[in-house]
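Quick check before the chapter quiz. The format below is the same one you will see on the exam, so make sure you can read both the input and the output lines.
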Amino acid sequence: MKELLKRIASTIVSISLKMLVYYWLIKLAKKYGTSVPKVNFIKEKEESTLAYYGKGSIRIDIYKFHSWNALKRTVFHEYRHHWQWSKQHLIFQWWIEHNEIYASLYPYTSIELDAYRFGNSLGVLDDDLVFRLMPLEAIENCYSDGSLEEVFHKLFYLLNQNK
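Here is the expected output.
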């Protein structure tokens, strides 16, 4: 009986959290003219992974969050990837197709810089500044001439120097 009550309580908490996450996502989707991504709660083995976006779906490990604000910032961050897929598709796709570079430059890539700005500000920094500073043509040129890592490190510094 005790185990059953624990499972029921866990299910209620999970449903409540999912409703809250969808509430945030519906508001964001309405504001930015996108679809509402599907949400899956997962238990991620990799310690550093809180959530990730892929194929129209956000996967969130709710067991790793210690505050509402951290969860909300993560939901906004992952929603921004959904927005990127919809509104900056060519740049988003470029990084996906160059996965080895994306993995090595992860926090410095334009899609992560943009998502961090959006998520950490809870949507206040909703401009496309990162994509205006580094449009696809500039990314491809830097990739071709071997300066991609250096340029994105400088962009990261520029965007974070006032923090």
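If your answer matched, good. The beta strands are 38-41, 51-54, 57-60.
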